[in-house]
Specification:
Elements: E1 2-7, H1 11-24, E2 27-33, H2 36-45, E3 50-54, H3 62-68, E4 74-79, H4 85-89, E5 95-98, H5 103-110, H6 117-120, E6 127-128, E7 134-140, E8 143-148, E9 152-158, E10 161-166, E11 170-173, H7 177-183, E12 189-193, E13 196-199, E14 203-207, E15 210-213, E16 218-220, H8 223-234
Parallel strand pairs: 1-2, 1-3, 3-4, 4-5
Antiparallel strand pairs: 6-7, 7-8, 9-10, 9-13, 10-11, 12-13, 14-15, 15-16
Length: 235
């Protein structure tokens, strides 16, 4: 869990950040402050991992606030003005978000938080975006890639990572196969082999100990998984 705060004096911008933070699911918002002095008081008694910091603030600017911090958590600057980008990186900020920014750009910035971000962000669960469609963000290197769950054809385990095959391309993920088995809907996705999880809706036919997908690719069915697989397909 990434514990964060917002320092932003514009209510609409605060609302956007709060919504994005809640949508990610593994972030905890410790507070939202309209100026840096309020945030300083909070930081005296609370530990956080990340600050979303506006540059143009009343009383003390975001840049001056950065200069005053003795113990710096990760900082993602948010501003409507691009002029400060180069200066901000002198203070070792994690990223610089230019308003208005999309949810995908927000996720990309958060993925750069490296406190144990490889541990914290890899636990992202599927994010509901509408009543009819699920998406999931998978960690690939330092990026989070959005994938429509319904587009996943199968997932293949390869040593220390997994390959997520979608309708259009293959994505490498740092997650083990067990993560996918526990995360994806088991009414639609099933383990058919020690190295494969399959989207049942992509099956064209079953031939002996192989499954043929609707793109004519064959996948093996492991003996230990066949009985459960057949029961689920036939019921």
């Amino acid at each position: 869990m990434i514990r964060c705060i917002i320092i932003e004096d514009q209510p609409p911008a605060q609302r956007v950040l709060k919504k994005y933070i809640s949508d990610i699911g593994n972030m905890e918002l410790g507070g939202a402050f309209a100026d840096a002095l309020q945030a300083m008081e909070f930081l005296k008694t609370s530990d956080i991992d990340l600050i979303f910091l506006d540059i143009h603030l009343p009383k003390i600017s975001g840049i001056d606030f950065l200069k005053m911090l003795s113990k710096k958590p990760h900082v993602i600057l948010t501003t409507a003005f691009p002029d400060y980008a180069l200066e901000s990186y002198e203070y070792d900020v994690t990223d610089y978000l230019l308003k208005p920014f999309s949810f995908e750009r927000f996720v990309q910035a958060v993925s750069k938080v490296k406190i144990t971000s490889s541990e914290k962000l890899k636990n992202l669960k599927p994010i509901k975006v509408s009543s009819t469609s699920d998406v999931i963000f998978i960690k690939s290197g330092y990026e989070l890639i959005k994938i429509d769950v319904s587009d996943i054809r199968f997932i293949h385990s390869d040593a220390d990572y997994t390959e997520v095959f979608t309708t259009e391309k293959k994505h490498l993920s740092q997650e083990p196969l067990r993560f996918w088995e526990e995360t994806l809907d088991n009414r639609l996705f099933i383990r058919i082999h020690k190295s494969y999880i399959l989207n049942i809706s992509k099956i064209e036919k079953i031939i002996g100990n192989q499954v043929r997908l609707d793109d004519h690719k064959n996948l093996p069915i492991g003996r230990a998984y066949k009985e459960r697989f057949m029961q689920q397909v036939l019921n």
